Sequence to fold (771 residues):
Amino acid sequence: MKDDASVRDFRAETRAWLEQNCPPEMRLPIVEEERCWGGRKWTFHSDAQRLWLERMADRGWTAPTWPREYGGGGLSHAEAKILREEMDALNCRPPLERVSQALGLLGPTILAIGTDAQKARFLPPIARGETRWCQGYSEPNAGSDLASVRTRARDEGDHFVINGQKIWTSHAHLSDWMFALVRTGPDTPKHAGITFVLLDMDSPGVDVRPIELISGKSAFCETFLTDVKVPKENVLGEVNDGWNVSKILLSNERNSISTARNFMAERSIGLTALDRQREGPGHESDASLLDTSLRERIAAYEASAWAFSALSERAGDLAAAGESTAAHASVLKIHYARLNQLRTSLMLEIGGSDYFEWDAPVSDAARLWLRAKANSIEGGSTEIQLNILSKRVLGLPNL
Amino acid sequence: MLNFNDEQRMIRDNLRQLLTSETPVSHLRALRNARSSDGISPALWKTFGELGFAGVLVPEEFGGLGLSLFDATIVAEEYGHTLTPSPFLSTSVMATTALVVSGNTHLMRRFLPEIALGRIVMACAVDTGPHHDPRMPGLGFARSGATVTANGTKTFVVDGHIAETVLVTGLLDGEMTVAAVARDTPGVTVRRQWMMDAHNSAALKFEDVQLNQMQLLSDPGKGRDILDAVLAAGRIVVAAELIGLADEVLSRTIAYLKERHQFGRPIGSFQALQHRAALQFAEIEQARAAVLKAARAVDEGAENAELMVSVAKAKAGEAALGASEEAVQMHGGMGITDDLDIGLFLKRARVADHLLGNAHYHVTRVAALTGY
Fold:
């Protein structure tokens, strides 16, 4: 398909603006630690990072498709796609991570069902990277069976008083706000008594403890809530309708987790493997991988990764045309988890024992491999996604 | 965009209606049982001509619709659903692409209008051995004055035994060259290969076949471009057929899971089967996106088009074989009987995966094209 004139203009203007405004440091390949998540507790890694966020936020391009009045760029899907293509072409780093809880999940949900007051209050600071959010969904006894949350919200007239425990609240210790599912109707059937609330992490009674993971990182936390007051204007959707709100948000989650990662925009791991082979004496001029089993397994992974990027693109196109289904969210999530696990495992294999050192490592491959184990568990496990496809898409009967 | 517009949806719906009424899977079964000499429905091919499908890729100036490869995938996906054997691949896609890319106006004028009308069948002879290796054509052209002599063998030539003219690849002075050879030319012997999927295939032998210069599609230097374009188009269209096949065989399996009862309940209520079926769905959706992306990439002349073609063919082959193998298993004993159509899907999936390079071939090609 050829660009028509207005599309060409937009592309040219966008490229010119990016070339002029994206600092050179923000056009180097991104390292994990330098991704920008924003929030009041955020420390910028460099002036360039701060400047880049400010310039993009001023243009509304941190949230390109949100309306301008709420801090977005007011772009169409097609324009946003061009913006992204041009950013990729110039190697511009995202000024603010698109997959954050705020930008990727809560923002679109507030846009869809929030009150005007909620939109005006919460969206602009999200788009500017001034507030960071975490997700208070899972509890020790409510994981895959999320509807059995027990954190209790007691009605006190103009506000709720909340008591309970949340777990797997990613980066709660770095977040300013939490959106949470709480039980407001203890006597109603389990899906019907849940409310979706927006909770200020600075409120008295909020206690956050990071959990150490097998990767050695502490991305997840336990969050204890003791007599935490939440005003009723911070309920998103209707009281006792939180389950439906969470479904809207979860479909954003699966979309944003997956569309954010274009594996093949990164360097081919086959080429990395070839580099390592060439480091050996007598192999400097090798043209291909001599380990044909490894070569085929890497290529099979990369073929799937290319197919996955096509799938992400198609899911975006279908969504823009209003043809999106729950199916695509689950399909993306399943493939993303599998591919990232495969990729990180192959990287460890390519590195060999050099990559196993835990302290002062040559590469963070070991930690990334361990981190990837969470991909098929967090945000609705692979088994839950397969259940969703079986029931809602294929129409298979219940036992 | 990797989704269909209204016009494309209309084409799809019309075709689906036509094929499910004219050539449902029972049509393939009947051709097989009768050992039909054509191996296709000549009536349907004529209809394809009347409705414009045969000329999807033929430029308008030669009487075709002049549409894109992306549009051609819509046609292939639909006949994949019904396992309809059709000269669409050999004639409307591969031969048409060869002629158009050659730029040989003499041959284009002669063949393209006939193709668009569904009046002739043409074949493309690429393979010489049991494993796809198009750089080794297994056929040589020797020039002597105005005469060109062809010697060599070809195999797995789709529609080779019914084609009026066969486009044959070979080496002329060490360079890839394509020639248009009438099937009844002296020195050409054709043996029909009865394949397990009951789709057309033939082995061709060329012994001192005398051709004239006018039968060469181009100068030898251009032969490789022609071959590359034919392979890209052919691979995408076979991949699209495989997506249709996979989609259909999964639908039939889901229907069976809902209807078949054991232990007093539908077997589709067991999670062990639900998750396997759902995984097939996920694989097919990903492969479908890869096929659409590859078609767009070739249409737009994208830099990574060749890579995307191999990705598409590999993923479609895997998805179709995976879905049909699971279909056999989930149909239990019935799945291995010839009474049910499931076996026909499995057979076609296996042959079409192999056609123009199987998943292994294309995965290896991804490594080569990426540079490792």
Chain B has a mean pLDDT of 97. Strands of chain B lie at 122-125, 139-144, 147-157, 165-172, 175-182, 188-192, 202-212, 261-262, 265-266.
